[in-house]
Design goal:
Elements lengths: L30 E5 L4 E6 L2 E6 L4 E6 L12 E10 L6 E10 L2 E6 L8 E4 L4 E4 L1 E3 L17 H8 L2 E7 L3 H13 L6 E6 L2 E2 L12 H14 L3 E5 L4 H14 L2 E4 L4 H9 L4 E3 L9 H9 L3 E3 L12 H7 L6 H6 L22 H13 L3 E2 L10 H10 L5 H16 L16 E4 L13 E6 L2 E4 L5 E3 L9 E2 L2 H6 L7 E2 L2
Parallel strand pairs: 5-8, 5-9, 10-11, 11-12, 13-14, 14-15, 16-17, 17-18
Antiparallel strand pairs: 1-2, 2-3, 3-4, 5-6, 6-7, 9-19, 19-20, 20-21, 21-22, 23-24
Helix pairs in contact: 3-4, 6-9
Length: 496
């Protein structure tokens, strides 16, 4: 709004139709607006910087690009003698070797170790793919500034999550964090996001998707930040949901959504959307519904920890054991996040909880050709993904539950060529377990090592054991170049 006057006298605002005479300067985002001088306003969005001259009514846009190296480990590591649950088909190798060179798997099964720089005897262990959490909210504690040793991110890696999609997350928080992780400056799962959600709204609301053009502008804004997915947050009109799906197809993005009732979910899938999160609370799920969704090859991520009628299923695990006493959990979770609800919790009969029936509905859809997905929702950091897997296994065999936790999530993300199973050419994302999850699914939490992109960590502490010998922290970054070119175990972090 061009402002007339010096401020010493009242200024009359000419209202037309009840609105101030304002002019929209951007259709694809604008943050931190400020006046550079009397006639130039500047603002930013993602990598874009904008300036607008109110006298000439012209705008200039600049893109700011910064390249930093992605950390790719040097050398070759071999894990020998382990049971390997590849999730490539139904293959389980009872005793084999897995070789990772750089960040990628180069051999699975019968492998020579003659070229390996490091050999770890994994006899008696079980190797499984890292978990893919497709409904995560764990970049919330610090707004706009992320500590380089952030428990919210690192804790998930310590418990086996190597990739996540944090949907409905503040763009200024998640995308810089994801880049810090990719460059090796932060430790945690590789992170993807929808950025800010496309919140529901009708034509009377300011945030409404009032036309395809407005919807497309919002989609391009989110994609410019780095979104790979759109979170369509229960748009009330079917046309709005169709606009989101159409724009996503045109820009090469996937669409995720907050699920609703049966009719709502049916309409989303019929209109081309391919997935939703949160459950349909109908239990049991009848066969005709499972067949429809299965034949459409949808992904159903029920987010079991917060799902269903009755009490939240996560409370089953709060009541089952003294969660707060776990030594590893106390290492990664602040006491303030455990002292209340974990020590004073409600005890109920097991039959009060709905997760077995909800998991069965997901299993029925999978049996008809659809997919499931792990979604911990950020409800209780780090342990919730484990609890999700255990609940999924109430309706299917442990091997199939592992498939949902890894391979199905990779499919949901559109990254199945890189992650989700242990195959030559895929990223070295894996867990080395001390006990066999095919015997007892709860053995997924018995982790000795976790590897992400070829970097191997002690799961208990996230101390790096390959290719460097580096403690987790709390340290700050010292020498980027040395980390990329050297294997010396010192001088990369400083205790001060």
């Amino acid at each position: 709004l061009p402002w007339q006057g010096s401020g010493s006298e009242p200024v009359s605002l000419n209202k037309r139709n009840g609105k101030l005479p304002v002019k929209q300067l951007s259709t694809e985002g604008g943050l931190f607006p400020r006046w550079r001088d009397n006639q130039t306003v500047e603002f930013g969005s993602g990598i874009h910087y904008y300036q607008y001259n109110t006298t000439t009514e012209t705008a200039d846009t600049f893109s700011v690009r910064l390249d930093v190296p992605r950390r790719i480990p040097d050398g070759t590591i071999a894990l020998t003698g382990a049971r390997i649950v590849t999730l490539d088909g139904v293959q389980v190798i009872q005793s084999g070797t897995l070789v990772v060179t750089g960040s990628r798997i180069t051999c699975v099964g019968e492998c020579s170790t003659s070229s390996a720089d490091r050999i770890i005897d994994a006899s008696g262990k079980t190797i499984i793919p890292g978990f893919v959490d497709m409904h995560a909210h764990h970049f919330r504690e610090h707004r706009g500034y992320r500590p380089l040793r952030d428990y919210e991110s690192a804790a998930y890696l310590a418990y086996g999550v190597t990739t996540n999609l944090d949907n409905s997350m503040w763009s200024q928080n998640i995308f810089p964090t994801a880049e810090l992780i990719e460059s090796g400056r932060m430790i945690g799962p590789r992170a993807f996001s929808s950025g800010d959600p496309l919140y529901r709204g009708d034509a009377a609301r300011q945030n409404a998707l009032s036309s395809f053009e407005v919807t497309d502008q919002n989609v391009k804004r989110l994609q410019s930040w780095g979104a790979v997915s759109l979170k369509q947050y229960m748009q009330p009109r079917r046309a709005q949901r169709q606009w989101v799906s159409q724009s996503a197809r045109e820009h090469g993005l996937m669409v995720s959504a907050e699920g609703g009732d049966l009719a709502y979910n049916l309409s989303m899938i019929m209109d081309g959307q391919t997935a939703w999160e949160h459950p349909m609370s109908y239990i049991p799920l009848y066969g005709d519904v499972a067949k429809f969704f299965g034949r459409a090859n949808i992904v159903y991520s029920p987010t079991l920890v917060v799902a269903g009628p009755g009490p939240g299923n996560i409370e089953y695990f709060f009541a089952e054991t003294d969660v707060w006493r776990g030594e590893k959990h106390r290492r990664w979770m602040p006491w303030r996040q455990m002292v209340g609800h974990l020590r004073r919790r409600m005890l109920r009969p097991d039959t009060d909880y709905s997760y077995p029936l909800l998991a069965q509905g997901m299993a029925d859809i999978i049996a008809e050709g659809g997919y499931g997905s792990l979604g911990s929702h950020g409800e209780h950091h780090a342990l919730a993904p484990q609890w999700e897997i255990w609940m999924i296994a109430s309706a299917m065999a442990p091997l199939e539950a592992l498939r949902v936790a890894s391979l199905h999530g990779a499919h949901f993300l559109g990254a199945e060529e890189d992650i989700g199973s242990l195959e030559v050419g895929k990223l070295g994302d894996l867990l080395v377990l001390n006990s066999n999850p095919l015997d007892n699914i709860r053995n997924t939490a018995d982790i000795q090592y976790v590897m992400k992109g070829g970097v191997l960590y002690e799961a208990e502490t996230l101390d790096e054991v390959w290719p460097l010998n580096t403690p987790f922290g709390p340290y700050y970054w010292v020498d980027d170049d040395a980390l990329r070119t050297d294997n010396r175990p010192v001088n990369y972090w400083n205790r001060n």
